[in-house]
């Protein structure tokens, strides 16, 4: 009788420890989203405004903040013994298929975005501060380059490492009902509403993007392919203006 009582207490203790660990993990994730999404932009804006500096300095501070957030995430993954998500894997021709699928998804969701553009809230919670920054100094080539790097390189690496590499291996890993994919997609969608686009259309748009990247990670088990697809998706935003710039440059310098 005493043995069964002790065994029951041990089970309760284990359940409590597991529950406590899950709760702590959730709070850590929430804190990290705040740190990586809200704080870098907010701190960058306040520092630039207080010092009377313009858009270039803000972009530089934002870049440094996000790089710092990524290094913090790597430290956390190492502490959790989860650096296996960066495991090296050989080249696979399926990568081309996933890049093509990324292009198709970009086109389909791009049409969806344009179709409902009138219902989308494009305001940022820091719009007033952005106006002050721009009054101190307009963005130059440096801001353009940093914006491109943030969108195409740093952003995808940071988001995929957290939303896919970490979350999908912690919550509902390899779920029969794809709960890991659903959760990852929803969190990806919600994280894009922290600073702007606080409307149902944007939530659906970003969540669908998140579902797609989550499926890529689920099917390939290769975080590098997922990051590559995300980078390519974001690069397509710049593809048209880059093409226009290059074609005009070639035309005016070589054919006139």
Automatic annotation (TrEMBL):
<feature type="transmembrane region" description="Helical">
    <location>
        <begin position="57"/>
        <end position="78"/>
    </location>
</feature>
<keyword id="KW-0812">Transmembrane</keyword>
<protein>
    <submittedName>
        <fullName>CAAX amino terminal protease family protein</fullName>
    </submittedName>
</protein>
<keyword id="KW-0472">Membrane</keyword>
<feature type="transmembrane region" description="Helical">
    <location>
        <begin position="232"/>
        <end position="252"/>
    </location>
</feature>
<dbReference type="GO" id="GO:0004175">
    <property type="term" value="F:endopeptidase activity"/>
</dbReference>
<dbReference type="InterPro" id="IPR003675">
    <property type="entry name" value="Rce1/LyrA-like_dom"/>
</dbReference>
<feature type="transmembrane region" description="Helical">
    <location>
        <begin position="201"/>
        <end position="220"/>
    </location>
</feature>
<feature type="domain" description="CAAX prenyl protease 2/Lysostaphin resistance protein A-like">
    <location>
        <begin position="143"/>
        <end position="236"/>
    </location>
</feature>
<feature type="transmembrane region" description="Helical">
    <location>
        <begin position="90"/>
        <end position="109"/>
    </location>
</feature>
<keyword id="KW-0645">Protease</keyword>
<keyword id="KW-0378">Hydrolase</keyword>
<feature type="transmembrane region" description="Helical">
    <location>
        <begin position="177"/>
        <end position="195"/>
    </location>
</feature>
<feature type="transmembrane region" description="Helical">
    <location>
        <begin position="129"/>
        <end position="157"/>
    </location>
</feature>
<dbReference type="GO" id="GO:0006508">
    <property type="term" value="P:proteolysis"/>
</dbReference>
<feature type="transmembrane region" description="Helical">
    <location>
        <begin position="29"/>
        <end position="51"/>
    </location>
</feature>
<comment type="similarity">
    <text>Belongs to the UPF0177 family.</text>
</comment>
<dbReference type="GO" id="GO:0080120">
    <property type="term" value="P:CAAX-box protein maturation"/>
</dbReference>
<keyword id="KW-1133">Transmembrane helix</keyword>
<dbReference type="Pfam" id="PF02517">
    <property type="entry name" value="Rce1-like"/>
</dbReference>
């Amino acid at each position: 009788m005493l043995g069964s009582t002790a065994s029951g207490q041990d089970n309760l203790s284990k359940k409590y420890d597991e529950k406590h660990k899950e709760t702590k993990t959730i709070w850590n994730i929430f804190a990290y989203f705040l740190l990586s999404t809200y704080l870098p932009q907010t701190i960058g804006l306040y520092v630039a405004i207080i010092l009377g500096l313009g858009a270039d300095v803000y972009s530089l501070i934002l870049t440094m903040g996000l790089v710092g957030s990524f290094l913090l995430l790597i430290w956390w993954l190492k502490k959790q013994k989860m650096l296996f998500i960066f495991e090296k894997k050989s080249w696979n021709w399926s990568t081309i298929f996933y890049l093509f699928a990324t292009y198709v998804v970009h086109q389909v969701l791009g049409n969806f975005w344009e179709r409902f553009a009138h219902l989308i809230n494009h305001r940022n919670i820091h719009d007033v501060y952005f106006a002050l920054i721009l009054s101190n100094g307009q963005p130059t080539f440096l801001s353009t380059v940093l914006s491109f790097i943030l969108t195409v390189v740093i952003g995808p690496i940071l988001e995929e490492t957290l939303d896919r590499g970490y979350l999908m291996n912690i919550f509902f890993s390899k779920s029969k009902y794809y709960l890991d994919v659903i959760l990852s997609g929803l969190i990806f969608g919600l994280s894009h509403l922290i600073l702007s686009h606080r409307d149902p259309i944007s939530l659906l748009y970003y969540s669908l993007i998140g579902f797609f990247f989550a499926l890529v990670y689920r099917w390939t088990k290769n975080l590098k392919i997922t990051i590559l697809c995300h980078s390519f998706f974001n690069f397509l935003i710049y593809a048209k203006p880059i093409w226009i710039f290059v074609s005009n440059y070639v035309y005016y310098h070589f054919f006139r």
